[in-house]
């Protein structure tokens, strides 16, 4: 096909041709009038699109300049260099001025990971295309336009910082304007990544997205980190590897459509859950892929503990296993394990060694999640604080082998009751200490309370506490009732949990005064509640009250039945007598007197 002199076409003629897709390639070809590929030119049009085809050993310069005091935006929306070329031997260099001696704005080459956009500081701009000696058909598509920054209306783009959000192209759902250039910077919480989806998407369709396009970058700049480019009518999806993403919309001067409606959400690439006995670490496969790793490259402190892999990679293990370390800190216990991402079996590597440090901090009635990631000694935090699982029950004897399951628990006055607080944890090196136990006639422990134990000291003469035994705190006391005839008694205990390896912990000090207690440390504190307790005589009294009532109810029911039966019998006798009387009086035929 003979190249047409595209540089001689005016913008209206070019726009008219854009209506017929078959002639686009002809009008966009950057050729001389004789059909020989043109190497360089001086351009003064307010806007122009160029399709440049070059071979080896090219050194071509294009100058763009107008007399108006405006700025130039130059966009290389498609470029194809020799695949084996380096940036030193084959590139496009862009200069901020009328010649190649002007300041260098930047360059485009085979390794460019972006859709390059350059903006001049004045009304002139120059770009130089250089190719090496290898025979190969290079293709470039570039368009530029002049504009006035001081009069341009910024009706699109901006910064989005929420955990999720939406944004649309200008005028959506009406057609977007020509020469639109919008940049959205999205930033979510640290250690998250961003998922971008489109509810509607309609840009000008082109195989290489040269005319109108959307470009998405993994980061806050548009110079590198291109995730992808989109156009046409498909609904693309994009995902970042970090908590920052940049979205660019660029359009030329013809064939505008309705644009797009987009929604982004923040996604945690890793999560940590801590329970009373397990630690669970979940990693996103996409996050691992972004780091150049997969599940085979992961290991905990104990390499024999392996993850379960589905659509995610999951480590779940007891707190006291898989090489987990424990540290007793002031009023908390911290369990720590490390997921290391590294290549094995290789002599060298060019990948970052990543460590995901997972911490479960058992604190006072609080829940916080943190995991932090280290990349070549650069630390990013992500931790988790959880709660121990504690329960309290009554037992039928001091062997504490058979818990009392009935509720309410009916007892005799002054009966010895056995109570046990149990810690449900896989960590064997923990102690349970009963700091304070209070009784109340109300389940919400209102104004009326009675101390059985306070600050580890027995306050009731019948209370006997047993020595701490691993995960159990035990004591006994004699049953009582409150003087105001309250039918129930509830029991609540403040429970302290300590590291058994810490000989100076609060759990080892027993009964202390309030002054000493304020300076004593403990690891974790919670409350355990059990009840109600009721006296057996209350149940017997209720039974005695109920029996006469039932007897009276039965007597009244029987009397009523007898009365109804007698009424029925009387009615039956009366009816029978009445029928017999009627049968004695028959009808006689009157004799005729004639």
From TrEMBL:
SMART domains: CUB (SM00042), ZP (SM00241). InterPro entries: CUB_dom, Sperma_CUB_dom_sf, ZP-C, ZP-C_dom, ZP-N, ZP_dom. Keywords: Disulfide bond, Glycoprotein, Membrane, Repeat, Signal, Transmembrane, Transmembrane helix. Coiled coil: none annotated. The keyword Transferase does not apply. Signal peptide: none annotated. CDD domains: CUB. Residues 273-514 form the ZP domain. Residues 31-147, 156-267 form the CUB domain. The chain crosses the membrane at residues 553-575. This is CUB and zona pellucida-like domain-containing protein 1. The lineage of its organism: Eukaryota, Metazoa, Chordata, Craniata, Vertebrata.
